[in-house]
From TrEMBL:
UniProt-listed Gene3D superfamilies: 3.30.465.10, CO dehydrogenase flavoprotein, C-terminal domain, Uridine Diphospho-n-acetylenolpyruvylglucosamine Reductase, domain 2
InterPro entries the record matches: CO_DH_flav_C, CO_DH_flav_C_dom_sf, Diverse_Substr_Oxidored, FAD-bd_PCMH, FAD-bd_PCMH-like_sf, FAD-bd_PCMH_sub1, FAD-bd_PCMH_sub2, Mopterin_DH_FAD-bd
Domain annotation FAD-binding PCMH-type: ranges: 1-169
SUPFAM superfamilies xref list: CO dehydrogenase flavoprotein C-terminal domain-like (SSF55447), FAD-binding/transporter-associated domain-like (SSF56176)
Protein name from the UniProt record: Xanthine dehydrogenase family protein subunit M
Keywords carried by this UniProt record: FAD, Flavoprotein, Oxidoreductase
PROSITE patterns: FAD_PCMH
Length: 263
């Protein structure tokens, strides 16, 4: 039987001090952590619950950015009029994460901190060139995701909000594993002020930008252009749900569908 102490954090500073202990885990929505504990993959001595911190929740439009608190649930993002008006692709992505229970419990910050290689939100964050704000600093999306379940977060560092720049165009396409509803492959495309960005999740050890596809779409924003860009399967995942070659074939197909959805 797994035992641990449980504390509902009263402040971000209190949570940060407690989380500096290697045997302590922060819990947001708990959709990943509680499952890991049940399977014996995690055995923290203490849990610090962030759900009581109102400052970490909410959505606001600030100039040309949509700022979302780290403890905002997927369901809230999906239903938000502000998000649906400014970045409808982001609301679409949030509305297709997991099932209703996951969407009503899981949080944006929890998803990013966990950085599951098949999670949906990392593709939106990287695809839009978002900025992750913590209790210590700001981190650009390109610097945040480091690999399999690994991020730039330091011990005890807590995500407070994420700022998404509003793109000219954006869309999300996902080929899901039907039981878990994680992405076998997911592709987020965006025309941003800095150029075209294409982020892929589910296909490799972590979310990544498909730079060759970005260059092709920068030159010609069309599904036909996307279909001409292949990707090597050598660094992609292969498992019982789909081989690396299968995932490599899906990436340009889903990219083309995403581009078509913006037209």
């Amino acid at each position: 039987m797994t035992t641990f102490t449980y504390t509902l954090a009263n402040s971000l500073a209190e949570a940060g001090r407690a989380a500096a202990d290697a045997e302590t885990k922060l819990i947001a929505g708990g959709q990943s952590l509680l499952g890991a504990i049940k399977l014996g993959l995690a055995a923290p001595e203490a849990l610090i619950d962030l759900s009581g911190l109102a400052d970490l929740k909410g959505i606001r439009v600030d100039g040309g950015h949509v700022v979302i608190g780290a403890m905002t649930t997927h369901a809230t993002v999906a239903a938000s009029h502000e998000v649906r008006r400014a970045i409808p692709a982001l609301a679409d992505l949030a509305g297709r994460i997991g099932d209703r229970q996951v969407r009503n419990r899981g949080t944006l910050g929890g998803s990013l901190a966990n950085n599951d290689p098949a999670a949906c939100y990392p593709a939106a964050v990287l695809g839009l060139g978002a900025t992750i704000y913590t209790d210590r600093r700001s981190i650009a999306a390109d610097d945040f995701f480091k690999g399999l379940f690994e991020t730039a977060l330091q011990p005890g560092e807590i995500i407070s909000s994420i700022s998404f720049p509003v793109p000219n165009k954006a869309a999300w396409q996902k080929f899901k594993q039907p039981a878990s509803r994680f992405s076998l492959v997911g592709v987020f495309v965006a025309q941003t002020a800095a150029g075209v960005r294409v982020a892929v999740t589910g296909a490799a050890a972590g979310v990544f930008r498909f730079t060759a596809m970005e260059a092709a779409l920068q030159a010609n924003w069309s599904a036909a252009s996307a279909a001409q860009v292949g990707i090597s399967a050598s660094k992609l995942n292969g498992d019982l749900h789909g081989s690396a070659d299968y995932r490599a074939a899906l990436i340009p197909v889903l990219t083309g569908r995403a581009v078509a959805a913006t037209q």
